[in-house]
Amino acid sequence: MNKLWWERDDLCIKSSKLYFAGKVAADLYQQHGSPTFIYSFDRISHKLKSLHQAISSTRLKDRFQIYYAMKANRYAPLLTLVKQSGLAGIDACSPTEVEHAIACGFDASEISYTNTSVSNKDLERLVKHRDLIINCDSISSIRRLGEMSPGREIGIRINPGIGLGYGQNEKLSYSGANTTKFGIYQDQFAEALNTAANYGLKIVRIHFHTGCGYLSKQLAIWDNILSASKWFIEQVKDSLQAVNVGGGLGVPHVESDEILDLVQWANILEKHFAALDIRVEVEPGDFIVKDSGILLLEVNTVEQKRDTTFIGVNAGFNIALEPAVYALPFEPVPAVIRKGAEQKYTIAGNINEALDIWYRDIELSPVEEGDVLVLINAGGYSSSMASNHCMRGSFKEILLQ
Prior knowledge:
2 domains
């Protein structure tokens, strides 16, 4: 059998069985049932180390910081091991995320907070943590934070007006031709600086996050985004200590996707920031956990309707939203590969909504009712976005070490 595009040492088919993190997927199903998310901390650690290695190979090696974007996956055992590894701090986007990260062992000084439409109640909870890194997303939040905590060091989230994301999907873009809610544009930056000065707020960080899931072919756009950030940096160069370039690093979802070239990515960072006496911060989430997790499902229905053969499984889009909301596919793989010619299937969930389709028209080895189906790339933005729609929100999470 030819090696499939997604296979690697810790995710592969051997003797017609799917292995993940050294475990037989069918055995994991027998132990834990379904729907169950299985995460590999070895893979998470590998991804974090690969980022460290890529940046450390540049002139930025002594002045960079990685913050894991916990909105991708906030499973407490996972966060605790990230803390123990010493490989990353936390990127949080709500006061409750900040408090959850602290409960998992992180100090406030190891947490970078950035969000939009921040309420006064949010700010009241945030300012209790004097060492928390707060990046303000709007002039309003700068003013209200200044009223509550004058003299504080802050970051300002900017909007460079250029976006990128997986497949240039507009739903994944935080910046671009269309005006977005994220960050402060160039034409309002002077007002933002004046507002900060009125409250003695010291601007020590420029922050921006422009999109999610970009791969190697989009690195030229990434280069342009960093160029656009230079104008903002120049305005606050006397007090600036760090530039936070956000996350957005992607992983392949389909066979035609090209793996992100981390060396080229890091070299672009070096090109723009090595000559500046500042720290470079990065906030990957998806890149760290997306391909570090799988979702185990049970096949309950195999039935042809007109010209389509449906595989029905025991979970729906409510526990893993990305295929329905962002058109980001999870590759379905049978836990045991049956002999026989491949057939074309459409994978459907158990939620009573038309958009509850996991994957359309994929060719798989024969699948029968009672089989175990595995969705790969389910480690990020799945369980963390789950809902109890149709009261079918139950699932398990297991972390393999």
